[in-house]
Amino acid sequence: MISFIKGKKLEIDPTKIIIDVNDIGYELKISLRTYSEIKEHSVVNLFTHLQVKEDSHTLFGFYDKSERKTFLSLLSISGVGPSTAIMILSSLSSSELNSAIISSDVLKIKSVKGIGLKTAERIILELKDKISKNLNQKNSNNFLVERDNTIKNEALSALSSLGISKNVVNNHIDRVLDNNNNNISLEDLIREVLKRS
Which pTM was predicted? Predict the structure, then answer.
């Protein structure tokens, strides 16, 4: 089991990072939260989970142990795979998800792209007791991200990496940018588009 990876950041986008560890490049799938925390760093330390399948080995990276713990909890739910878990963590922070689970806010969880009513209910039912025990642990977040000229292209790239057609989200991105006078972070832009798609 690989518990964490520390090394030089070679490439990063909102869905993945490549880290150089002693001249070996490791590709890790990441959430938007992790992306916002590490994108300015040249050396990163990510907690990991290795997903092993017959035809692939996929590494997932997390900025802190809390996010990894939430990810693993989501994987324990029937019908929630790693891609769906990353999608949930990209739309809701660990603390937002935990709050939604504790308060049985089905609509908030259902607002995540690809999550239906039954899956949202199952997440609440199966994780509520677990989350209640860890209620005292809080995540400090809300990282402000500077907007740059390529925000639309980065958002399109990230959303297509999540399996969403560029044609579907192109208009949504334009509308969100117009409504916010182009003053919006990449993470918030992607979250808004995910809600509308």
Answer: 0.66
